[in-house]
Design a protein that fits this description.
It comes from Aegilops tauschii subsp. strangulata. This is MHD1 domain-containing protein. This protein is an alpha+beta fold and 732 residues long. It contains 27 helices and nine strands. The strands form two sheets. Strands 1, 2, 5, 8 and 9 form a five-stranded antiparallel β-sheet that branches. Strands 4-3-6-7 form a four-stranded antiparallel β-sheet. The termini are far apart. The N terminus and C terminus are likely disordered.
Amino acid sequence: WSAKSWCDYLTQQFSRRNTTRETYSCKLRLKSSPEDDVVPMQPGSGETHVFFPDSLGDDLIIDVSDTKGKPCGRVVAQVATMAEEPADKLRWWSIYREPEHELVGRIHLYVQYTTAADENNTKYGSVAETVAYDIVLEVAMKAQHIQQRNLVLQGSWKWLLTEFASYYGVSDAYTKLRYLSYIVDVATPTADWLNLVHELLLPVLMKSHGTATLSHQENRILGEVEEQIEQTLAMVFENYKCLDESLVSGLAEDFRPPTGLAASALEPAIKLYSLLHDVLSPEAQLRLCGYFQTAARKRSRRHMLETDEFVAGNSEGIKMDMVTFTTAYQKMKSLCHNIRNEIFTDIEIHNHHILPSFVDLPNLTAAIYSVELSNRLRSFLVACPPTGPSSPVADLVIATADFQKDLASWNICSIKAGVDAKELFHLYIVLWIEDKRRALLENCRLDKVKWSGVRTQHMTTPFVDEMYDLLKNTLTEYEVIICRWPEYIFVLENAIADIEKAVIDSLEKQYVDILAPLKDCIAPKKFGLKYVQKLAKRNSTCPYVVPEDLGILLNTMKRLLDVLRPRIESHLRSWSSCIPHGGNSAAIGERLSEVTVTLRAKFRNYMQAVVEKLSENTRMQSTTKLKKIIQDSKGLVLESDIRGRMQELNDQLIGAINHVHKVSEVHVFVAICRGFWDRMGQVNERSIEPSFLLLSYELLTNLGLGCLEFPGKPQREQGLVQRRESCSVGAR
């Protein structure tokens, strides 16, 4: 049919009082044709144009504009209305303004409608023949039960359709497009469907891009088919890990973990996408990448469902029992592993080289997975804050750190706002250490010490062993932290040093009454204090007896120096291997060394004070003063007389040493004995004859070292022998 505009005038009715005549222009097109396929016509010009509608359901659309190009309204003329009365060629059609559908005017249009075939325009095809072909095709598809997984016509029906199209001049492009129009209605994201669509569509697109052109009807079908194919391709790419050729629908309904294999439908989907789009254009590349990003978001969202209950409402500090707490952290650990597996699967798919080079699938999806996992971890830690590096928390720390480490080892690009395990847990780790420090310091308070007056098999106070067991457990707890972030060694060391100082202070406070008699032997002797101390000593008439609690204190300090603290220092220094090359590993243990120096000095002072007290006992009476005995023995020649004078001193020394042996462990006992003999041997050699000095050393050796057995005795005797030899030289 043809349409000829014989408009003598165009009447517009407005709400104004005066009606004015203006010049208008029209743009005509068929509803079935592309929007840019318009024909401009001027009312009253006598122009003529021939249109070829697809069917009676088509419409002729006329857009009316004023001289300035401003749209005035639209006319929609139905082809079915024209076909009902083909003799009525000149008609008035109403002009409406959308979207209000307001009547704004009318247009006088001359239309001549005919259904006769025009031999000069055979390229547009015949509506009657294509309708007949459609009927035959539909019957053939029903006869062969064409459905989702049965898409190919075969046998006599295929032959009949081929012969029908050839005889009635139905174009090859139309037969393929019409067949495609039925196929897309039963589309599935499967390899057989995608391959068939590619096979049918390829020659059609080659024709449309070549010298030949498609009819309006073919273009319309192609547009509809391409739109549905695009939807199916989007389904394939957005669910590329859920595709399953064994299912009728081609898509798994339940959520499954990734298998690490590329789906069979992925490769033909890429071929079909490349056929429909110019993959060198940025728009096509962005669209394809967008599909995979959507797939990653869908997979991530599905994984996150397992932990939604713990972050619901974003509430902080949810109260939960230990079982729920452990379950929550185990689910978060599983989430980290699941997201890690998703990215690893993308790497394996990428290594199949199915995707175009511009699709870097691992980096594309990892950016989404990492950011969403980081956000979920952050929200979870706020809602369920970890109170310490317990087993469930440590497992989550390890899973998070390993996730970050795996991304780096897979050469995934740095992701802004992605998972940073240290940044996520830093504040919590610092708080854990501080809380542990405060808790252990609280245990060191004098009113919290449980073991006052009790001693262990080592003759020490259980308080110290208990505290150092807690310190050892603390180091073990933080093993997983230090191995990954060794910089926390120094934070932990500072806390341990503070606790050790508190342990020493607590010991001194616990035994303050026992240490009080020793203070006058430790205080610095200056500003006249030496005289005051000596005066006080003279006034003291009771001999000093080493208390049992003092033995416990000295034994405890010795065990601290020789056993307990070296274990802590050794454990701490063993972490130096975790520090990267070039790090300051030599600084590890500096704070603990300061504590060692302090503790060793205190222990030495207390030991010297005990020795001094025992030495003072020998000077309380003239009969036990060694120097006095030697001076009074100058006139004596017989050794037996000298020994008789020293008998009382000998008894006192044996009694003192036996008591020390009872209250102190062997190492402390040996140290006190050595110090005691050194102190007893410090006589004024200038005022004594060398022969008496020699005799006194021999007596000390016989009376002291001869009456007790303890480690180091041979070395001690050798020292006294050397002294004796030096005295003999002096006598001669």
